[in-house]
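Lecture notes, part 5. Sequence design as translation. It can be helpful to think of inverse folding as translation between two languages: the language of shapes and the language of residues. The source text, in structure tokens, appears below.
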């Protein structure tokens, strides 16, 4: 059903969930400690960290995802002016590729797999079959989650107000703004730090 829906709506997630379920068949027999370790590694977003490290090692490195050339623009034009069958055709291949590419390049694929593994562990523990038994743990998890979400919310709003640039002899560049964080590495002899409100 998710695949059929994706032919009408590019952003369908159900068919991706279905595909992500297949690796679980290979992980199902692993013990809980191994699954926890795998989930933690996936949550660390190793592919994203890899590109981050490269940007610090090589000042000329530029992360360039493959979005199929101008397929995004082509798809938007079809959605705005094309017929129903035009939408189905572009969603069947080009937009499908774009969704998979976005899922991969943004780290969402490893995120989802980590969450699936955590769900598998929760199922093994029969949390939802024994809610009363795990009531204290669930309450603690809820409390910690609320605190973390609150702190992250305020941290995001604080970071969004500033652009922070740090330069050292092999200088690192950090630019925080409302939608993204840039990391780069360049060479120079200056060393200074300044804060500047974004937009100024």
């Amino acid at each position: 059903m998710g695949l059929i829906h994706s032919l009408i709506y590019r952003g369908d997630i159900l068919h991706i969930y279905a595909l992500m379920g297949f690796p679980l068949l290979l992980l199902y027999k692993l013990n809980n400690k191994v699954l926890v370790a795998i989930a933690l590694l996936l949550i660390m977003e190793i592919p994203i960290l890899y590109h981050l490290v490269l940007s610090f090692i090589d000042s000329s490195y530029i992360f360039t995802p493959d979005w199929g050339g101008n397929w995004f623009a082509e798809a938007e034009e079809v959605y705005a002016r094309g017929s129903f069958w035009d939408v189905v055709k572009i969603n069947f291949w080009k937009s499908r590729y774009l969704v998979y590419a976005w899922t991969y390049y943004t780290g969402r694929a490893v995120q989802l797999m980590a969450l699936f593994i955590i769900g598998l562990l929760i199922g093994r523990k029969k949390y939802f079959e024994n809610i009363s038994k795990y009531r204290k743990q669930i309450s603690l998890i809820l409390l910690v989650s609320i605190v973390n979400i609150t702190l992250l919310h305020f941290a995001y709003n604080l970071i969004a107000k500033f652009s922070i640039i740090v330069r050292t002899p092999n200088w690192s560049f950090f630019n925080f703004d409302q939608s993204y964080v840039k990391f780069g590495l360049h060479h120079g002899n200056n060393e200074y730090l300044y804060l500047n409100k974004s937009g100024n």
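The translated text above is only one of many valid answers, since several sequences can fold into similar shapes. The chain has three domains: 1-125, 129-158, 160-200.
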